[in-house]
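Re: that chain you flagged

S.,

Sorry for the slow reply, it's been a week of failed gels. I finally had a moment to sit down with the sequence you sent. For the record, here it is as I used it:
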Amino acid sequence: MSTRTNPKYPVCIISKGRWESRLTVKALERIGVPYKIFVEPPEYDDYAAVIDPENIITLSFANLGQGSIPARNFVWDYAVENDTGRHWILDDNISWFYRLNHNRKTPVNGGNTFRAIEEFTDRYTNIALAGMQYDYFVPRKEKWPPLILNTRIYSCILIKNDLPFRWRGKYNEDTDLSLRALKAGWCTVLFNAFPCKKITTMMMKGGNTDNVYTDGDERLKFAQSLAKQHPDVVKIVRKYGRWHHQVDYRPFKKNKFVKKPDVVIPEGTDDFGMKLVKVR
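Prediction finished late last night. Pasting the structure tokens below so you have them in one place:
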């Protein structure tokens, strides 16, 4: 059994209509990571029937028709008010957390991967966003670097609280926030080494499935929205039978990490208590 090293920043889940599935809650409880889940007032009783009420925070609004944006900004304000420095914000459809090592994705049994990302991020003054890669973007039969710099961060995100931004719009909010940070000279870090398993968009009821992904335009509005926000780096393409946005992240290669002057990066490898064990 690995040493459990939990995250030092609050882990916050936004959820709507998914008290029955509650994949992210189950995944975090399975590995012993503390969390808070943010739900709308009409759904509080449903969530409280299956989740410890101590872990539930009730939003101050319901059914605004603006997707997850109001809930995301509520969480951000909560983190600022509690002076946490950074906060994690997770979608509610993540079922597993892994460590990718020697082309093997091994489920973790603690909050070690969260803590490793935090420790790396806190070495620098200018990392705005960090997060976990989707597991299906790092197939095991290919070689991958441990992290990708200055790209989009999504679904499992560590956010610097004092950024001069907030979530906005209705579509592609994660890409939009990443691009605004990068354009302002900040850095982002996406960790291939610590992927998470997220259920594909629109494959579960609840969340944005019922109030955003509903007009049957094959996500053209999604792509158009981002292209309007960032016409300099986004174009609209059609792939796999639907519309997509395609982002050019090359202009942000010049964004470089700024290390804190008092930080000494240790020699060798720190596994944050993780050990590979066989489960019978």
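What I noticed first: DSSP finds six helices and twelve strands in the chain.

Talk soon,
D.
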